[in-house]
């Protein structure tokens, strides 16, 4: 039985205040969905079985390139971070896994696993870091890592990734995500072709070290930290990587890593069609890699992404099991609250996509009835599915209103007394 960070009776008391209203809202929504031929309980069951991983690096206040304004009770290290992740899962019942970033989260693997077990958490994809230099590191990544011109630096980056796989094996993880910042800041600085050849050769070495039941995710990002060219800049390059490396290699789509207005849902559809959608880093963005809360800026886009995922599920695409992970940075909110909301927004998009009338949609598409086709999507999107989300949480032992329950628990105040104040400072990294 998991160790609870928030007293279960407090969640029960908070839920009791809202139980009657939820029941009425759930019944009303059930009746209205019933008239559309949808069984609300079937949707609730699916939503309750949908999970998303929390990033260990998301529970501390992130900061920007300019400054970091820490909150109180900031986690001191990975074990505090896991405690915070457990709170998010306890309240939402949507986030039973955590994605670790090495070397930020480096600790004894046995202790990490024991802590995860005690909290009822397990570990999703491991993330390597060759985009910054770790203290004491022999060779610098200032001019690149897996694509560096210097073979010894590339080797160091390869070995770091292999070490991440080893740590992940001890933790029960089944995937490694590789995102590198390699690129150039000036035209002429780097030979595009040679640099990509070096990158592919280095990734092939990492791929060789991958256990059979693991996947290797490469993550594309248009720019930053390199501002002229980036090696893995878009999904096209990413697809080439996955295709070149082999069947265990797939593409990871971080929603914030595209140019504004990019049709991300279509990228998702293409990757699904060719068996190369590995997973997601969910977040939202207005301008670039903003790492804002999922659904905070463009909730309709999030829904359209889920529409593609549910379409694939509906079509029974073979071997389709993308990894769902959040990748956010929080500057002005309590990270626990933001992550709670994001997990809910992601489930909301899933629930809305589940209630799309897919037969009607296919009919309108065949008839070239653009208006009714788009209206079919909108009808699902306009439906307030909150009672489904709340009921899924309640049934699993979570909170009907998780942010309110979190505030009522006084968790932040409690950890603020235990954890020393974190120092404000210069820029963060993401
Ligand atoms: C890069 C990125 C990548 C990193 C994380 C910290 O912008 O999205 O996923 O691992 O941020
Ligand atoms: Mn990311
Ligand atoms: Mn990012």
UniProtKB/TrEMBL annotation:
InterPro entries: L-rhamnose_isomerase, L_rhamnose_iso, Xyl_isomerase-like_sf, Xyl_isomerase-like_TIM-brl. One of its GO terms (molecular function) is isomerase activity. Transmembrane segments: none annotated. Pfam families: AP_endonuc_2. Residues 100-291 form the Xylose isomerase-like TIM barrel domain. Keywords: Isomerase, Manganese, Metal-binding, Plasmid. This is L-rhamnose catabolism isomerase protein.
């Amino acid at each position: 039985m998991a160790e609870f960070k928030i007293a279960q009776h407090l969640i029960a008391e908070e839920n009791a205040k809202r139980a009657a209203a939820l029941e009425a809202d759930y019944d009303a929504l059930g009746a209205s969905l019933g008239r559309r031929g949808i069984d609300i309980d079937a949707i609730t069951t699916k939503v309750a079985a949908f999970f998303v991983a929390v990033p260990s690096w998301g529970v501390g206040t992130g900061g920007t390139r300019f400054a970091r304004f820490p909150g109180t009770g900031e986690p001191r290290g990975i074990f505090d971070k896991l405690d915070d992740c457990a709170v998010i899962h306890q309240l939402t019942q949507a986030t039973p896994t955590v994605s670790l970033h090495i070397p930020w989260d480096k600790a004894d693997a046995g202790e990490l696993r024991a802590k995860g077990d005690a909290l009822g958490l397990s570990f999703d994809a491991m993330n390597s870091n060759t985009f910054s230099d770790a203290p004491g590191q022999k060779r610098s990544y200032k001019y690149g890592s897996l694509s560096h011109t210097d073979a010894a630096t590339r080797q160091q980056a390869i070995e770091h990734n292999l070490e991440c796989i080893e740590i992940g094996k001890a933790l029960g993880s089944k995937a490694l995500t590789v995102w590198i910042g390699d690129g150039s800041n000036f035209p002429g600085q780097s030979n595009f072709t040679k640099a990509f050849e070096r990158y592919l050769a280095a990734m092939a070495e990492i791929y060789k070290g991958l256990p059979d039941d693991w996947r290797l995710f490469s993550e594309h990002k248009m720019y930053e930290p390199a501002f002229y060219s980036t090696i893995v800049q878009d999904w096209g390059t990413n697809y080439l990587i996955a295709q070149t490396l082999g069947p265990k290699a797939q593409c990871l789509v971080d929603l914030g890593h595209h140019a504004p207005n990019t049709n991300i849902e279509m990228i998702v559809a293409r990757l699904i069609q060719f068996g190369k959608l590995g997973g997601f880093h969910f977040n939202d963005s207005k301008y670039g890699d903003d790492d804002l809360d999922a659904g905070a800026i463009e909730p309709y886009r999030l829904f359209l992404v889920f529409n593609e995922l549910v379409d694939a599920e509906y079509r029974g695409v073979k071997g389709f099991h993308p990894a769902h992970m959040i990748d956010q940075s929080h500057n002005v909110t309590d990270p626990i609250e933001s992550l709670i909301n994001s997990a809910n927004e992601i489930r909301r998009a899933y629930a809305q996509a589940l209630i799309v009338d897919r037969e009607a949609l296919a009919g309108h598409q065949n008839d070239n009835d653009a208006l009714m086709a788009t209206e079919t999507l909108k009808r699902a999107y306009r439906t307030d599915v909150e009672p489904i989300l709340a009921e899924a949480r309640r049934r699993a032992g979570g909170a009907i209103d998780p942010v309110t329950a979190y505030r009522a628990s006084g968790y932040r105040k409690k950890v603020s007394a235990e954890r020393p104040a974190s120092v404000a400072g210069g820029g963060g990294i993401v």
